[in-house]
Amino acid sequence: MRALYSRLLVPNKSGDEAVLGLLLLWDPLGFETTGPDLVAFFRDPEGARGAGEALAARRIRHALTTDIPEGDPLEAYRAASRPFPVGRRLWVEPGEPSPAPAPDGRIALRVPASRAFGTGTHASTRLALAALDEEPLDGKSVLDVGTGSGVLALAAAGLGARLAVGLDTDVDAVVVARENARRHGFGDRVRLYAGPLEACSGKFDLVVANMLAEEILPEARRLQARAGRPGRVLLSGVTREREKTVLAKMRTGRWKLAGRRTEDEWISLCLERAS
Questions:
Q1: Residue 246 belongs to a domain with what CATH number?
Q2: Can you tell me the distance from the alpha carbon of 205 to that of 135, in angstroms, rounded to the nearest whole number?
Q3: Is-above-0.85 flag for pTM?
């Protein structure tokens, strides 16, 4: 019986931006960080094997295991996932949606693992969520570029934004994000669209992008253009080795660095337009 769910383990500190970008070429279902290791999940062994061969060509160590011969390829992943807190106010649930309220008055984000990126288990998503938790979002508007599962747009709405717009070029991701929005009482303040950033109009109090540096750099001016006055741009998905390059591109004109967070090799950056 053909397996439908495969796991590729990249050990030690190989989970850098170049490796992540290489894995993304093989259409992974999602990622998980386990200590210093990066685990990529694929819908079938062929995708995992192709990604493994690409890593081997770069002399990057990896280990491949195959699970679940039938049924939902993410069922076991969701079953094994456990909710976890982020920042002072957020409670992320990457497993099967639960009717139980979040503990201690936290805001539940129910984003079960799916093909769309963004269950909160990857360091770049956690960094973005933690940064959002510190933003004064009451009554503000937020644009989430590359929304994936919609987790950041949902977090913004849950934290008080009057409007959170999620944008992604992946139509399937937007379908998943809309399903996730319907699970939340504040989901009616989230708008989700498929399309490129250049098709988006209007100004937002905060622009968020959890994307790799090579995706951020060509969109830098558009990201800044969508931020109102005074405007803020929150970036995540940047590795230490690309931080200077991203800052050199973003910190121009009247834009300055307003915040920085780190976890392992990943960095989030908050920039604001000086008044």
A1: 3.40.50.150
A2: 11
A3: no
Residue 71, pLDDT > 80, answer no
Residue with tokens 């920039």: 271
> For 169-189, what is each residue's pLDDT tens digit?
888 888 889 999 999 999 999
> Per DSSP, what are the bridge partners of residue 9?
39, 63
DSSP state of 26: T
At which residue do the structure tokens 């081997």 appear? 56
What are the helix and strand counts (H, E) for the chain? Answer: 9, 14
Q: How many domains does the chain have?
A: 2
Which residue range forms the structural domain that includes residue 174? 116-273
Burial 42-64 (b: 16+ CB within 10 A, else e): bbebebbbebbebbeeeebebeb
- Characterize the bridge pairing of strands 204-210 and 141-145: parallel
Q: How confident is the model at residue 68 (pLDDT cuts 50, 70, 90)?
A: low
